[in-house]
Amino acid sequence: MNSARDAGTSVRGLDGRVAIVTGAAMGLGAALGAAFLKAGAKVALVDVEKEKLDELLASLDPEGCHSKAIVADISQVADCRRVVEETAKHFDRLDILVNNAGICPRALILEVTEELFDRVLDINLKGAFFLSQAAAAVMQKRKYGRIVNISSVGARTGGMVAASVYGASKAGLLALTKSFAREFAPFGIYVNAVAPGLMTTRLFTDLPQEKQQTLASQIPLGRIAEPEELARVVLFLASDDASYMTGSTVDVNGGWFMY
Q1: pLDDT tens, 70-83?
Q2: What is the pLDDT of residues 199-217, one digit of tens each?
């Protein structure tokens, strides 16, 4: 299996670009940060967990020459706007936004509270909307931009049992992908989504071991994806290689869901 360092070596047009990655402290977000740096991009790593974010920055870019850590709660619109403003000011440009941050608290439908519902939508959907809104306002001035939304196979299937709100939030993200793609295409801003299946990240490893084994057995490729495999797809969509793609969703799930 290629490492995160190899994920950004085969795409065009990322050298010198500036990217924002949310939910960057671990899992897919950390793999994305490493991949963008390997591809020659500069990266604003955004997360609410300062300690883990600092650890990641120290391991990926010890001198801090090509990256910046931004602690933010993207459920807050003011923080969404601050992330974009700080990134554009620090690097003097903004080219790419990856809306990766997301949460998936487990609750059966009859157990879902208003607080849980709002929290999931605030992070998974509202945060992505207002980050994209702020980023698009900056990108359209240069008539160039790439926004990649990390959705989920749950957006296609309705989600697993006890993940209904998560599935709904990720389905909403696919609709936003198309809305932003249509509205900002005249400004050279391409907006696409990736719908991952299972990955070896906390959302999966927090499941009971028996549940992990059952889910893995349902995947035609017979295994769970590594975050680096998803990172390569995201980098493609953020690169000049995806020059005729906007409003698209790329399913990366090992054959778990086909249509």
Answers
A1: 999 999 999 999 99
A2: 998 878 888 899 899 989 9
**Three-point CA angle 116, 112, 159, nearest 5°:** 90
**Distance from chain centroid for Cα 228:** 13
Q: How far is residue 237 from each of residues 28, 147, 150, 242, 247, measured CA to CA in Å?
A: 15, 8, 11, 5, 11
Cα–Cα distance, 151 to 144 (Å, whole number): 23
Domains observed in the chain: 4-251 (3.40.50.720)
Catalytic residue among 144, 166, 190, 244: 166
The string of pLDDT tens digits covering residues 138-160 is 999 999 999 999 999 999 999 88
**Catalytic residue check, 144:** no
Question: What whole-number percentage of the chain has pLDDT above 70?
Answer: 96
The full DSSP string for 57-100 is: HHHH-TT-SSEEEEE--TTSHHHHHHHHHHHHHHHS---EEEE-
| Whole-angstrom distance, CA of residue 137 vs CA of residue 67 | 22
